Amino acid sequence: MSISSIPKARIVELISRLKAEKQAEDYFHITSSASLDERLMMMRKTDLLAFVSGLGPDAEDELSALEDSFPFTRPPTFYLSIIDEKPDFDQINMISKGLESSQRDAGMDFDERSPVRFVYMPKKGKVSKILDTHILELMLHYERKVEINECDPDADNYGGAVHIYSLETAYMWLPEGNFHHAVLGCCDFTAIKPIYKYLKARLELDLSPPWLSSEVFGKITSGAEPRSATFSHMHYEKEMNDIQHITLTDPKLKEKGLFNTTIESPNREQTSGFYFNHPGLQFAGLGVARREGKVWTPKRLDRKMIAGLALTLIVQTEAELAKSTNLQDLIKYYHFHRVKINQKLLIGQAKEAWLELVPLVFEAVEAKKHESVLPAGLLEKMVAHQNELGLFSALEYTCPACGITWLAACPHCKKPLRARYKDEIVGRCDSCGFLDPDELVCECGEAIHITHLAAMTRLLPSDEIISSIARTAVRLNRIFTGYWIIQGRGLKYLPPRRLNMPPVLHLQDFQSWAPILKLNPAACGPLPTARVEKILSSTKEKCRRNGQPTSKSRCTNCLSKPLDPDLIRSGKTCLLRLFGVPIGKEFDGIHHGNEIADLLYKDVWIDKGQEVTIGMHVKSSRSDPPPEGMGRSTRQIKELYTQILYSASRALAGEYPIQVIGAAIPSAIHPQVIAAWSSTLNSMGFPMLIVEQEDWLKIINRAYEQSEFDKP
Q1: Residue 49 falls in which region: left (phi positive, over 0), alpha (psi -120 to 50) or beta
Q2: Running DSSP on this structure, what letter comes out for residue 629?
Q3: Using CB atoms within 10 A of its CB, is residue 553 exposed (0-12), middle (13-18) or buried (19+)?
Q4: Per-residue pLDDT tens over the stretch 572-627
Q5: What does the domain layout of the chain look like in residue ranges?
Q6: What CA–CA distances, in Å, run from 391 to 202, 381, 597, 683?
Q7: HEC profile for 180-230?
Q8: Coil, strand or helix: which one is 308?
Q9: Smallest Cα–Cα separation from 496: which of 678, 367, 653?
Q10: d(CA 600, CA 662)
Q11: Has residue 1 got a pLDDT over 50?
Q12: What is the rounded CA–CA span in Å between residue 183 and residue 207?
């Protein structure tokens, strides 16, 4: 067992505490006139250790305890680490006990090319109390690759490179309570990433390094005396006749003109520094680097001092962050190295767009009119990376003839157009592939001329990006509820309404539908279930009789005539009209004037006897739905999600008096999609109404029965 990490001064203190001064004088032949401590400090550490070990079992126990209190055999670096989601302190401690019993069997392997091949936890967590805060210490072992030159003269590869592995130790300190940081102590920078991965996989402790902006760096080091400082050129290029990096060192650095000139230079930024007399940190000195949030000290610290340093770093950092008024820097601090949406990391321009967007959302929340303006280029970045960001795009127009404001549809197939980025913002139909229309046609027949698609672009956030921003709000001690939308180059925040109904509703919860949907499918009409399923698979949300798209005049003509059973059986009657038949409503495929939803009608919520307005969006079934139900990547679900969010945002803005928003598609929907829809709508104050596949079987059968009854 190595005990080389014990400072020589602490061994000398131990000799004094053991009252072994006389034995030491005899052992080392020290005259009584000399200062014993000074002479002992001149001895080799190995000789001092041998002397103490020879004093008996009690001395050996004291030496072993002293060795245990100095965990690092090499000078470590401490890495301030951001906790992505606050874990359960007691649960992590409990899991660590199980990992201790499994030892290396519960470890994690890494690629053989990695500098670290294995990480595991040899001991359970240890809780101590420092500054009235419980802090959990986790010991980690990792196997580090070391390259040496073969020195056996008889070896075939004498003088060549040989890889061996060294067992090293790292520690993690995690405070209990409302903290957003932990501290990792490790002697090897290359081990940080494998350790992070291990902690996430085994303890569900998701960590990432911070981004220390100039402001945050200055706040953390304020009050301390700089002894050295490193500066980098902010706009360095190889062709420049200037120095890229400068390090200044002086015992009285703060008083030197060159230091003050450099720190005030607009072309340079400080990247690291070494400080003395830091407030609250009682050590010989402390180094701080902006990259990865690194902190180091030359002083050899025992376990208690290290835990105190870790907690003090966390407390002081979070206190300084709480004082910061620069929202952009705060968000970059926490998310510069990691932004996750739906458990996927954002990179490149997608991450840049998120970092620019979040401050604008918080700005709009606090603004009097709940609005903020997008900087140049942000709209284009968000459109280009809408899928990674969890955004749904659409194009909105206002008809000059009828005054209707609604989502633009493809002039060929009538499916919704989405905004895409191709050197500029263009409109694209995901259904037929039609790209970049020069004009649109309103359902009233008026031509809509397009001048600039950026102004027509609407971006609607999904539950995924809303959740990521809500987590950031918690971290910044901000309250974020409600919804927001992108309207051209502006952002509009919509405060939520109060949800006074269950999160998810079904048709049988309403007075018009309850008597019908409580029946079994066979009792709803004359057709067998297999026949109804076949009809459903061929029936569309908007009929295309004779291969022609729906028109206002044709829908009016259809509604003026009784339902034709033959047209129902052939799938040539639209889902919208069929939906209304069992409850005595006349719906059509155009719904001009009610574009807020495919179906807009009033019904009575049975539980409270309350009349509510329901806005329903309908989509045709998919010919080959997956067994688990349609997921969020399918075209129909994307279109439904866009329309649901658009309707909810306009209703939330007070443009339409809708209380319930629903989705109806004659195919099974994946439970995760329903959960996402309801989560987003509930956060806005709306319940989610789902029309089940079985409901559609009953609706079609009842409509067919009615058509037979009305047949001349």
Answers
A1: alpha
A2: -
A3: exposed
A4: 888 888 898 889 888 876 755 556 888 899 999 999 999 999 999 998 887 777 88
A5: 8-68, 77-208, 214-324, 341-494, 504-710
A6: 32, 12, 20, 17
A7: CEEEEEECCHHHHHHHHHHHHHHHCCCEECCCCCHHHHHHHHCCCEEEEEE
A8: helix
A9: 653
A10: 10
A11: no
A12: 10
Rounded Cα distance, 509 and 622, in Å: 27
d(CA 620, CA 507): 18
* Tokens linked to 511: 């007075």
What does the CA dihedral 299, 305, 311, 314 come to, rounded to 10 degrees? Answer: 0
Q: Which two tokens stand for residue 622?
A: 């998919």
Kindly report which listed range (165-174, 295-304, 480-489) carries the lowest average pLDDT score. 295-304
- In 10 A of CB 687, how many CB atoms? 21
Query: What does the mean pLDDT of the chain come to?
Result: 85
3-state secondary structure of 83: strand
Question: How far is CA 85 from each of CA 267, 471, 694, rounded to the nearest angstrom?
Answer: 37, 8, 40
CB neighbours (10 Å) of residue 636? Answer: 20
β strands within 110-224, DSSP E? 116-120, 126-130, 133-149, 161-175, 181-186, 207-208
Structure tokens of 391? 């955004």
**Alpha carbons 332 and 447: distance in angstroms, whole number:** 46
Q: Report yes or no: 602 and 611 within 8 Å, Cβ to Cβ.
A: yes
Signed CA dihedral, 357, 362, 363, 368: sign only = positive
Tokens of 548: 């022609």
Residues 6+ apart with CB under 8 A from 54: none
At 577, give phi and psi (nearest 5°): -70, -40
Phi, then psi, of 454 in degrees rounded to 5 = -60, -40
Cβ partners under 8 Å of residue 472, min gap 6: 331, 334, 335, 358
Structural Rg of the chain based on CA atoms: 35
Instruction: Please identify which residue in the block is written with the tokens 């056996």.
Output: 152
Going by C-alpha positions, the residue among 396, 460, 394, 399 that lies closest to residue 592 is 399
Q: Pairing between strand 599-605 and 610-618?
A: antiparallel
H or E element at residue 110? none
Q: What is the largest CA-CA distance in the chain?
A: 128
Query: How confident is the model over 329-352, as pLDDT tens digits?
Result: 888 888 877 888 888 889 999 999
pLDDT score of 377: 92
Q: Tell me: the pLDDT tens digits for 459-468?
A: 999 999 999 9
At 35, the pLDDT band (50, 70, 90 cuts) reads confident
CA distances from 520 to 173, 210, 294, 410, 565 (A): 60, 59, 67, 39, 21
Measure the CA–CA gap between 646 and 666, rounded to whole angstroms: 22
Q: What distance in Å separates the CA atoms of residue 641 and residue 393, rounded to the nearest whole number?
A: 10
